[in-house]
Amino acid sequence: MGKMRLDKFLGHMGFGSRKELGALIRAGRVTVDGMTVTDPATPVDPAGGGVAVDGRPVAFQRHFHVLLHKPAGVITATEDPRQPTVMEVLPPELRRRDLFPVGRLDKETEGLLLLTTDGTLAHRLLSPRWHQPKRYLAQVDAPLGPGDEAAFAAGIALEDGYVTLPGQLEIVGPQEGIVTIYEGKYHQVRRMFAALGKRVVYLRRLSMGPLVLGDLPRGAARPLTEAEVEALYASASLSHP
Ligand code: URA
Questions:
Q1: 59, 99 in Cβ contact below 8 A?
Q2: How many Å lie between the centroid of ligand 1 and the Cα of residue 98?
Q3: Phi then psi dihedrals of residue 174, to 5 deg
Q4: What share of the chain is helix, strand, coil (3-state, %, to 5)?
Q5: Strands 56-57, 51-53: parallel, antiparallel or unpaired by DSSP?
Q6: Sign of the alpha-carbon dihedral angle for 9, 58, 216, 120
Q7: Is the full-model pTM beyond 0.90?
Q8: Using one digit for the tens of pLDDT, what is the confidence trace for 83-93?
Q9: Tens digit of pLDDT for each residue in 170-225?
Q10: What is the per-residue burial (b if ≥16 Cβ within 10 Å, else e) of 71-92?
């Protein structure tokens, strides 16, 4: 791996935004090979170690994971000749070339999207055997009732004949519900409502396994915390590398 700017390196390791890191470095809190550096552009060898913050060595992480609050209107892909992608939404300090999205949100769907550099992790999370809950806030074009809740609890036959695993619908407004599903078929939430005669007019993913969107603003992204990384690998029955 080639050299990388110090602020970018620390950004990848989850130490903050480019702006916060500039301040941290200029405050003299970062050392490279034991020497204090104050220039955020100082080149460092990301794999070689030698960087410390407040005297504590920064362990190199081979993999890097980002939680994005995907806005509507961008597609879940790494590149596209015509349409804006989720990569273009990421702040430059979090754009690593080997980062890719885990699964897909539709162009018009907002909310939690995980991006990772770890193909093994992504593969596990996308496996049909990963039955961790995914929660969505959905608004539909017709009133919801107990029959809809019962249908979600039983599993719903989609238009192609596939019957979903039992899920949950919690009605939170006349035409609004929180849906929990344990798999991720193509357009699943929209198709489940369509099977009940309702059209989804707004969809936002709130959580995925141990990861929660929380109050991350729309369009914002952050590296996963160490605790989130641990929980995510555990949910996929992988040991944290
Ligand atoms: N279900 C959908 O229909 N669309 C999404 O983007 C995610 C889940």
A1: no
A2: 25
A3: -55, -40
A4: 25, 25, 50
A5: antiparallel
A6: positive
A7: no
A8: 999 999 998 77
A9: 999 999 999 999 998 999 999 999 999 999 999 999 999 999 999 999 999 999 98
A10: beebbbeeeeeeeeebbebbee
- Sequence-distant (6+) residues with CB within 8 A of 34 are 50
Contact of 190 with 106, CB cutoff 8 Å: yes
For this structure, is 98 an active site residue? no
Q: Report CA Rg, the chain.
A: 21
Catalytic choice (7, 54, 98, 106):
106
> Looking at this protein, which amino acid is placed at residue 108?
E
Q: One-letter amino acid identity for 111?
A: G
Pocket of ligand 1 from Cβ distances under 6 Å:
105-106, 109, 187-190, 203
Separation of CA 83 and ligand 1 centre (Å): 19
pLDDT of residue 240: 75
Per-residue pLDDT of 126-168, as tens digits, reads: 998 888 999 999 999 999 999 999 999 999 999 999 999 999 9
Q: How many residues does the chain have?
A: 241
Distance in angstroms (rounded) separating the CA atoms of residues 165 and 184: 10
Token duo for residue 132: 């961790």
Residue 73 tokens, joined: 């209107």
Ligand 1 centroid–CA 199 distance in Å is 12
CB 99 within 8 A of CB 114: no
What's the order of all strands across the beta sheet hosting 56-57?
35-36, 30-32, 51-53, 56-57
Contacts of 102 (CB under 8 A, 6+ apart): 113, 114, 115, 116, 121, 122, 125, 126
